[in-house]
């Protein structure tokens, strides 16, 4: 039983970030200028703080999910930001809806992680103390 408690405590500690500042950036429209803006915001946040002091997660749903499509013109920027620690979260509800409309599920950038609901994810992050930004 002691080892079970130790593993649970270790897993919990691994989930907690040491970053002093945490931001969730929200995109829900497909306007290319907003896609660029949100990626610029993420880069600016990374550059504003010393390494390890900031966490950034971009959550996309609705038409904004197109930012995370594999063939999006910003794919290389997503890859670069992901390598710098930015997390990209895609709404599973939107993905299912788009699959119905398109006849197949769109391919996402490998940097994107799918969650059941984008709006719920934003709420969870805000509850964890993330600063909410919608450019």
Overview of this structure, please?
This protein has 135 residues and is an alpha/beta fold. The chain has helices at residues 2-15, 32-48, 75-83, 92-102, 118-127, and strands at residues 21-27, 54-60, 87-91, 112-115, 131-133. It has a five-stranded parallel sheet with strand order 4-3-2-1-5, sandwiched between helices. The longest helix has 17 residues, at 32-48. It is globular, with a radius of gyration of 16 Å. The model is unreliable at 1-15 (pLDDT under 50).
Q: Descriptors for this entry?
A:
135 residues; alpha/beta; five-stranded parallel β-sheet; disordered N terminus
Distance, first to last CA: 48 Å
Helix proportion range = 40-55%
Poorly predicted regions: 1-15
Strand content: 15-25%
Main β sheet profile:
5 strands, parallel
What Rg do the Cα atoms give?
16 Å
Spell out the helices and strands N to C. Answer: HEHEHEHEHE
Based on Cα principal axes, name the global outline: globular
Structural class: alpha/beta
The number of helical segments is: 5
Question: Mean pLDDT, nearest integer?
Answer: 90
Sheet with most strands: strand arrangement: 4-3-2-1-5
Give the tally of β-strands: 5
């Amino acid at each position: 039983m002691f080892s079970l408690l130790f593993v649970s405590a270790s897993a919990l500690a691994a989930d907690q970030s040491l970053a002093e500042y945490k931001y969730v950036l929200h995109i829900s429209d497909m306007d290319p200028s907003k896609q660029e803006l949100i990626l610029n915001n993420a880069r600016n946040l990374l550059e504003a703080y010393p390494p390890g002091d900031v966490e950034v997660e971009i959550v996309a749903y609705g038409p904004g999910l197109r930012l995370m499509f594999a063939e999006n013109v910003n794919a290389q920027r997503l890859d670069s930001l992901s390598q710098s620690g930015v997390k990209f979260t895609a709404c599973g509800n939107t993905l299912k809806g788009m699959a119905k409309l398109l006849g197949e599920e769109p391919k996402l950038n490998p940097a994107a992680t799918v969650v059941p609901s984008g709006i719920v994810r934003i709420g969870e992050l805000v509850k964890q103390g993330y600063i909410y930004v919608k450019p």
